[in-house]
Amino acid sequence: MPKLQIEPATLAPAELDAHLAAGWYRVGHRLITTDLLLWQGELRSTLWTRLDVRGHRFGRSLRKLMAQNGRRFEVRVGALALDEPREALYAAYRESVGGDRAPRLDDVVGGERGRALFDTREISVWSEDRLVAFSWFDVGAESVESVIGVFDPAHKKHSLGLYTLLLEIEETAALGRRFHYAGYVLAEPSGMDYKRRVGALEFFDPETASWLPAPPFAEGQSPAEILRRRIDEAERALTGAGVAVIRCQNPALEVRGLLEQVPKCPPEPIFLVCETAAPPWVLLVTWDARRGAHAVQLARAATGVVEYGPSGPRAELRIYLVEEPLAQGCSAGEAVDIVTGWLARIVMGRGSAPARAAPW
Fold first, then answer.
1. Are 252 and 270 within 8 A, CB to CB?
2. What domains, with CATH codes, occur in the chain?
3. The model's pTM
4. Concatenated DSSP letters for 283-313?
5. For residue 334, what are the contacts with CB-CB under 8 A and spacing of at least 6?
6. CA atoms of 325 and 273, how far apart (whole Å)
7. CA 178, 184, 190: angle at the middle one, nearest 5?
8. Is pLDDT at 173 greater than 70 in this prediction?
9. Rounded CA separation 150/136 (Å)
10. Strands 120-127 and 74-79
11. pLDDT digits (tens, 9 = 90+) for 298-313
12. Going by fewer Cβ within 10 Å, which terminus of the chain is more open, N or C?
């Protein structure tokens, strides 16, 4: 769920360093930043991480893993390689770990454009002559950015995903770079937590644009957790009052740039939709994190055709266009009163609405 994206025409090593230090990360040929992510269907807060490799030493258990795998496998460091053995390994890896991942390795690096922008290199792990794992990383002037780690599911017991990450950190020091960026972890427990094992990570605070020795918010108080709790609170209150609600993950965020193109779309990542007796009019109940309160908005549903890529696929998307803010800075109980009042007003004919939604 990228908050911002840029597509640089050129990217010098020092410019990559600056973007990474500001909480940006490479995806294909773009750079993105975000503080929220859909993880297994649920909104989570991201924590961007980095490791200062100067004088860094792995803990005992990691040194043991490095020694064992060093005896078991051969490690090679070299240029980025795209070939059928790597595609086959990536396909097996994708099938094993699941998740929303690029269909092919060329998509991971952003095709020719991405390969031209970034200095991407590879660490590969071999069992005799068989490729069992590899990772790709971008090299900046003082930074190394981890792009992807892939391993053979048959060798899962050897922790090859973690192993290649540790090898990247060693390579960062060997190249004379200061920081290793491994992307984000989540504020709540997830399968990404293996990244935390490498040592004393720093965490990016988007509010102050600074790096901290600990996450910028207390346990259970991440923005996504607060948002989910507040939306839950409003949903319970509305349901208790007999109002049918739909919990909606903002469809406008599915299409890059749509919020800028259609400014009436609400920016909140999740909200509640209350259908009215005069479609396409709906009432939206949102959580305004800045005010620390709920808001109620009159909106209309609209549909349009979007293209998700240069050659498709084309798909119809239903979004919501805010026409009038009805209340801001209200409690869940006050939001219920406003919603039920407006629903009654529309039923009694005192509200006006077009017969059907206009395309956006």
1. no
2. 4-212 (3.40.630.30), 223-347 (no CATH)
3. 0.86
4. EEEEEETTTTEEEEEEEEEEEEEEESSBTB-
5. 294, 327
6. 14
7. 135
8. yes
9. 9
10. antiparallel
11. 999 998 777 665 555 6
12. N
